[in-house]
Write a structure and sequence with these properties.
The chain is of the alpha/beta class and 247 residues long. The chain has a five-stranded mixed sheet, sandwiched between helices. Helix content is 55%, strand content 11%. The chain has two domains: 30 residues; 215 residues, Beta-carbonic Anhydrase, Chain A (3-Layer(aba) Sandwich), CATH 3.40.1050. It is globular. Strand 4 and strand 5 form a beta hairpin. The structure holds zinc ion (ZN). Zinc ion (ZN) binds next to helix 6.
Length: 247
């Protein structure tokens, strides 16, 4: 009789701990809100800048988890960034496996394929955050600036159609700042090119436009500064202005 009471006490304790464990797991895998996702990336970039990166979610336990779980349960940001080897998103935001859904292309332009990948990130991976990330000293943007100044480079067959996407933003900046210092001019063009990518994305993808407009996700532009390692964020209102303009 005594034994059976002890057994039942043990059993109820076991059930309690088991359920607590399940609940904790549920909390652990819950996706962050868009605001929280921005904060996670800001904190990660700060750790990176301070040389205190923790390289989270980078071990074999995460690999095994990724093998059996859907990334839609974990990834919290879709990021369109440049292919430039100096700007690896997972590292500069101190993130790991199944954290960010990344699309990389020279000049972080947004053509049909990039818009399709972004749609996948937002609607299938269900990330609550979309970022278009430009960076200082972007070679693709710089090439367009130089070409407009009369120092055109000879490119291989497929590159011109890509840089065509960067031309409108460079033209706007150069036309309204004819005497600007070269470095400042390039910085402005990089920022304007992020805006251009948002504009092209919103034209290509009405579904993305609706999602941003409804407030279900947050969309932000940002610029990575190669000289400091810091990501500088553009104002949230900027993206909404572009969205209004497209509509
Ligand atoms: Zn670049």
């Amino acid at each position: 009789m005594k034994l059976s009471r002890a057994f039942y006490s043990f059993l109820s304790l076991f059930v309690m701990f088991y359920l607590t464990g399940l609940f904790a797991d549920e909390i652990k895998t819950e996706k962050p809100s868009s605001e929280k996702a921005v904060q996670i990336l800001k904190d990660g970039n700060e750790r990176f800048v301070q040389g205190q990166g923790t390289h989270p979610h980078s071990g074999m336990d995460r690999v095994f988890l990724a093998n059996k779980e859907s990334q839609a349960k974990y990834a919290y940001a879709t990021i369109l960034s440049c292919s430039d080897s100096r700007v690896p998103p997972e590292i500069i935001f101190d993130t790991g496996i199944m954290d960010i859904f990344v699309i990389r292309i020279a000049g972080n332009i947004s053509n049909t394929d990039e818009a399709a990948s972004i749609e996948y990130g937002l609607f299938n991976v269900k990330t609550p955050l979309l970022i278009i990330l430009g960076h200082s000293q972007c070679g693709a943007v710089s090439a367009v600036v130089q070409a407009k100044k009369g120092h055109a480079q000879k490119f291989e067959k497929n590159i011109p159609s890509l840089v065509d996407f960067i031309k409108p933003s460079v033209k706007r900046v150069m036309d309204s700042n004819p005497n600007m210092d070269e470095q400042k001019l390039l910085d402005l063009c990089v920022e304007e090119n992020v805006c251009q990518s948002f504009e092209n994305l919103f034209i290509e993808s009405p579904a993305t436009r609706e999602l941003v407009k409804s407030g279900k996700i947050k969309a932000l532009g940002a610029i990575y500064d190669l000289s400091t390692g810091r990501v500088n964020w553009l104002s949230e209102g900027k993206v909404m202005q572009i969205l209004d303009k497209v509509e």
